[in-house]
From TrEMBL:
Residues 29-195 form the Alcohol dehydrogenase iron-type/glycerol dehydrogenase GldA domain. Its cofactor is Fe cation. This is Alcohol dehydrogenase 2. It holds the Pfam family Fe-ADH. InterPro entries: ADH_Fe/GldA, ADH_Fe_C, ADH_Fe_CS, Alcohol_dehydrogenase_Fe.
Length: 402
């Protein structure tokens, strides 16, 4: 089903012809419009036969009033809405099972995720779990979902994860491990993008989620096996949009142009990494979220400069290309521009308040080895990194970030 794994790496061996062969998947429909939430009911009525929808979100999104227009519009279109606002950041497995019970007893014929990545990931899984054909425990990893899902629509309220266009859902398993479920079944029927929903996103969330999106684009552009011409084009466009829009939206949350560009950029980056998967930065960021509950985007930003420096040995051409793409500066060799790219990203993190050290965020030095051990478990991500990361390498990166 997920034929990409049969394709050969884009990085060909020396002397072999470099042949372009790839597969690209995404959601079938993407609808973007400022104010789209206000006509969501009409959109759903036109695009589907759903008559009662299970709306998956978190309390923060609900209390920010972000459901109001969407719910009014759905009711006006004759769609019955059951709201479940139980989602918490990085949803734990038990919570997913509890929500599954609620979803099944509500008996809805469609699912709507409206919120940040945590809400969208939960909605994606619930649309599958509601069918009752397979246990959650057997879905982890790549391509393990068998069977169907209910109709699924996703409306992001952060400009970060790109979850609205990815076939991925992240669940916290055990006490601390962030485990991924990756399957084409998780591609939604439609992603609906309304930048107005992101206007009241606080500055620090804007910064962290925006950096998450930039890391998606960077890691897709250097992804070891499945990087392809479409993911490259999407990553480049995403980075141009996000590098300007994230600082602008951080400075002025009401700047609708910046909000629109950031939302578009995060969606394009999502399409890129859905096909050319993320790597070392995410592998080292996940344990920070799992063990210390640091927000996903902040976790990425904390390790980003050091992973870029580490990777530069193997990915200097791509980093140099990204640097020239973002700045127009083509002076110097690849190595020098790759170094400048790491510096550029580090300065951008600083500009939006994300240049912090692990020691200031409650991470004790004697837990760095636990972080490195946990990072080694992220084999799904580590295999995509342009340079192999050993336990010692991971520990050294955490020490630099500490
Ligand atoms: N599926 C994927 O492809 C993918 C990719 C990357 C990350 N993730 C996962 O997504 C999760 C992170 O998602 P996230 O960064 O979007 O954060 P989130 O969904 O955890 O939300 C963070 C906080 O922001 C609040 N919030 C969301 N939108 C708001 C708005 N418009 N105004 C005010 N407050 C708002 C929420 O209430 C919450 O308190 C992690 O679990 C991560 O592992 C998934
Ligand atoms: Fe991410």
């Amino acid at each position: 089903m997920y034929a990409q794994r049969f394709l050969r790496p884009v990085f060909s061996r020396e002397g072999e012809p470099r042949v372009t062969d790839f597969q690209f998947l995404t959601v079938p429909k993407i609808y973007m419009k400022a104010g789209a939430a206000r006509t969501l009911g009409d959109y759903l009525a036109a695009e589907s036969s759903v008559s009662s929808i299970f709306l998956v979100t978190d309390r923060g999104v609900r209390e920010a009033g972000l459901l109001d227009n969407a719910c009014a519009s759905l009711s006006a279109a004759g769609v019955k809405v059951t709201i479940c606002d139980d989602v918490v950041a990085d949803p734990p497995e038990q919570l997913m099972l509890d929500m599954t019970e609620k979803a099944r007893s509500a008996g809805c014929d469609g699912y709507l995720g409206l919120g940040g990545g945590s809400s969208l990931d939960a909605a994606k899984l619930l649309a599958v779990l509601a069918e009752g054909e397979q246990d959650l425990a057997s879905m982890y990893g790549i391509d393990q979902i068998r069977g169907r899902r209910k109709p699924l629509f996703l409306v992001p309220t952060t400009a970060g994860t790109g979850s609205e266009v990815t076939p991925i859902a992240i669940v916290t398993t055990g006490e601390t491990t962030k485990s991924g479920i990756v399957s084409p079944v998780l591609y939604a029927d439609a992603a609906i993008l309304d930048p107005e929903l992101t206007i009241r996103l606080p500055g620090h969330v804007t910064a962290a989620t925006g950096l998450d999106a930039m890391v998606h684009a960077i890691e897709a552009y250097t992804s070891r096996h499945k990087k392809n011409p479409i993911s490259d084009a999407l990553a480049l466009k995403a980075l141009s949009l996000l590098s300007a829009a994230v600082p602008a939206a951080y400075d002025d949350g009401t700047d609708l142009t910046a909000r629109s560009d950031a939302l578009l950029g995060s969606m394009l980056a999502g399409q890129a990494f859905a096909n050319a998967p993320v790597a070392g930065v995410h592998a080292l960021a996940y344990p920070l979220g799992g063990i210390f509950h640091l927000p996903h985007g902040l976790s990425n930003a904390l390790v980003l400069p050091y992973v870029l420096e580490f990777n530069a040995l193997s990915a200097k051409e791509q980093y140099a290309e990204l640097y020239t793409h973002l700045t127009g500066d083509g002076q110097g060799g690849d190595e020098s521009r790759a170094g400048k790219f790491a510096h550029y990203m580090s300065e951008l993190c600083e500009r939006v308040g994300l240049r912090q050290q692990l020691r200031d965020l409650g991470v004790p030095q004697d837990r760095l080895s636990d972080l490195a051990s946990d990072a080694m478990k992220q084999t799904r991500l580590l295999i995509n990194n342009p340079r192999e990361i050993s336990y010692e390498d991971a520990l050294s990166i955490y020490e630099q970030a500490w």
